[in-house]
Request: fold
Amino acid sequence: MTTTGVLPAAETLRARTAAVIAFGMNGLAFASFISRTPSIQGVLGLSLGQLGLLLLCVSGGAVAGLPLSGPIVHKLGPARAVLAGSLTVSLGLALLIVGLFAGVVAPAAIGLVFTGLGVGVWDVAMNVEGADVERRLGRPLMPRLHAAFSLGTVAGAGVGAASAATGVPIEVQLIVVALLIPVVVTVATRRFLPVPVSTEEEKAAGSGVLAAWREPRTLLIGLLVLGFAFTEGSANDWIALALVKGYGTSEALGAVAFGLFVSAMTAARWVGVPVLERFGRVVVLRATAVFALLGLLLVVFGGSTPVALCGALLWGVGASLGFPVGMSAAADDPARAAARVSVVSSIGYTAFLAGPPLIGLLGEHIGILRGLLVVLGALALGLLVSGATKPLPVGEPVDR
Reply:
């Protein structure tokens, strides 16, 4: 795409704020129902395996939508794509609410598919916007944008914990969130960066997604994101229930464990910018994998609730930077950012597709805590391919 020159600093800063809001609302939308998985299980009368299959609907919708997200962002621009994704999420939550009120799984499952579809498009579009703002500012920004996502999940977890503790039905909680999302996102996306005018050659070339699927570096970054996304998503989906079922805690304390996990992720993503500037992507990713390993082992083998809560904190630190660093690495070349982010996200989100049912089924046979040990394989994968995130040298061939 052709550029229109250097944007005024004020316009870039407004776009940065808008991107922060978009990331935060995405996290809030996700955590608004994930933090209440015990309530969803109880209202719909599901077993652990059935709950895992229901959560699979979210991942299935996201994975189905991600291959389309690159062309959608290329066609509509990040602002309109984020707005379209947020409206789809609100529609999905509305259907989930109908299913919960009726006590029927089918509309809830369909609603979660739409929720996942919207989250997928929204996710790619906001990462493309964030990478563009990052390049224009000339300094790392993506970890702090993902910290905004984590802060949104902290807010969602806080609302979930407070609602559970005070007996507010999950249906009422979700109604408020479903109405809030499109209002806030509409205001925010009006401050996104203007979409550059495409040349005739760029229009003829299309989005470049198919070419990106043939790039070894892009595929390796996708595997890295898959490993860290599985590490993060496993805690997102199961840590609350792991405390309730594995340690006999209350639902409110389970939500607190989820809140500690996402709070640790938020803090680590915020301080991750100077750490990345000093030590580089590869060293930092390998160090965070060690933290995630320690946290996982404390949650599974800690033996007491306080130790498990400490493990949730370490797990959050360890899972914090894989996804944002992967997105930054995929977007190193601005001309191919949308296509590569779409491919990396498509690969990474298969972790969310496989994780919920796998851990749910394992949990039914060996217990939810030991079922979480499957995360060890994801951490090994992240360590193995972390070298692919090295920044592209100037003039690096695009087919690498």
Notes: The mean pLDDT is 85. The first helix runs from residue 9 to 34.
